[in-house]
Design brief:
Elements: H1 3-11, H2 18-29, E1 35-36, E2 41-42, E3 48-49, E4 53-55, E5 60-64, H3 73-82, E6 99-103, E7 119-121, E8 127-130, E9 137-140, E10 160-162, H4 177-201
Parallel strand pairs: 5-6
Antiparallel strand pairs: 1-4, 2-3, 4-5, 6-7, 8-9, 8-10
The chain binds zinc ion (2 copies).
The site of one zinc ion has 5 residues, from loops.
Length: 206
């Protein structure tokens, strides 16, 4: 394991807690792009709220909460604003609107050395699904749409679905250099895709 590579990757971001850093490592291991503390929001109540993570490709917010007394009121209030009851055919960028999750510490589970990924949805319940078409992971609310939130393909038969406690949680200091290199390569690819799309929209390429 190459400590320097890990520090470079996760060291790009200063996390407030080890749990947040571990959530970032776990999201990266699943190939999910994340932004840490992307913006300060003003909620309808007038409260200011700085969510921990925004997942720009799949329209999902995550508020990471450690053990003890969880303060999730702001995340729940955000959910009342960004969640939509739509299933299909709506102006929402993602069906069901944006998802707000509470990210918990790993759940102790037999057979998983560092425990399992554990979350709950601030408003309804969400499962983590891997798309059979693009292989991407996204959280879905099953009563709303089975459509992959990343590639938008609807292929329920090929979806693999996981509930809380079913996938391995990662620790940021235990992600191997090999995994980091793979993720870095994947991110570059994602950026290139975005750049190509932007150029196409601007008419710069055919
Ligand atoms: Zn909608
Ligand atoms: Zn997909």
């Amino acid at each position: 394991m190459n400590g320097a590579a890990i520090e470079t990757w996760f060291g790009l971001t200063d996390f407030r807690s080890a749990l947040e850093s571990d959530w970032a490592a776990t999201l990266s291991s699943l190939g999910i792009q994340w932004e840490y503390e992307p913006c300060l929001l003003v909620l309808p109540s007038g409260e200011r709220y700085l969510p921990d993570f925004w997942l720009p490709e799949i329209g999902t917010w995550i508020e990471v909460k450690g053990n003890g007394i969880p303060r999730v009121e702001k995340a729940r209030e955000l959910a009342t604003v960004v969640v939509c009851k739509c299933r299909e055919r709506c102006a929402c960028q993602w069906f069901g609107g944006e998802i707000v999750l509470i990210g918990h510490p790993a759940l102790r589970t037999a057979g998983m050395r560092f425990g399992a990924l554990y979350w709950d949805d601030a408003r309804y319940s969400a499962v983590l699904a891997q798309c059979g078409h693009c292989e991407s992971f996204s959280w879905l609310r099953l009563r709303q749409s089975f459509r992959c939130r990343k590639c938008r393909v609807l292929d329920p038969q090929r979806l693999r679905m996981y509930g809380p406690g079913e996938l391995e949680f990662r620790h940021s200091d235990r992600v191997t250099a090999h995994q980091v290199a793979d993720e870095y390569a994947m991110w570059i690819t994602a950026e290139q895709v975005a750049e190509t799309r932007r150029k196409r929209e601007n008419g710069e390429v055919a």
